[in-house]
Amino acid sequence: MDPINSPSRSRLWTLLWLLVSQLIGFVIALGPLIAIAGVTALITLLGGWSAVIVGFACVSFLLPLGFSIAAWIAFARRKDKAASVLSGLSLLMDTLLSVMVTAYTNSLGN
User: Fold this and answer.
1) pLDDT tens-place string over residues 10-67
2) Are residues 39 and 104 in contact, defined by beta-carbon separation less than 8 angstroms?
3) In contact, 11 and 80? CB cutoff 8 Å
4) CA nearest 64: which of 42, 36, 87, 83?
5) C-beta separation of 35 from 105 below 8 A
6) How many other C-beta atoms lie within 10 A of the C-beta of residue 66?
7) Average of pLDDT values for 73-94?
8) Distance CA 37, CA 77 (A)
């Protein structure tokens, strides 16, 4: 193999971290998004303003998506440490938003 183009060992670990953390973040975010879809449909049928708040919760999941995109861009530019941090922030944001949305949708049910 050409030593210039061969991936380093730390680069492979960074790639593995990007894939695993973003897959976990996707799975974490999927549950509340499905719950939000059901709550939004219910609130829209009942004619309430809470649909705007629930809609905002759906849009707020775009922030972790932005972190994920930035992580892949940093990885492509060979800034592995920045890519790892951005992917970790994406996972953290997914987790926090999922907890907040789940708590909100549970409070609507009570």
Assistant:
1) 889 999 999 999 999 888 888 777 777 777 777 777 776 665 666 666 677 788 889 9
2) no
3) yes
4) 87
5) yes
6) 13
7) 93
8) 37
